Amino acid sequence: MSLSSQLRSESLAKTLELGSALGILLQPSDVVLLSGDLGAGKTHFTKGIVKGMGIKNEVTSPTFNILVQYEDSEGTLALNHFDLYRLEAEEELDDIDYFGHLEEDAVQVVEWGDKFAGALPEDYLNIDFVVIDEQERILRIDAHGPRSSVLLKEWLGETTR
Question: Cα dist. 12→16, 36, 128 in Å?
Answer without folding.
Answer: 6, 15, 16
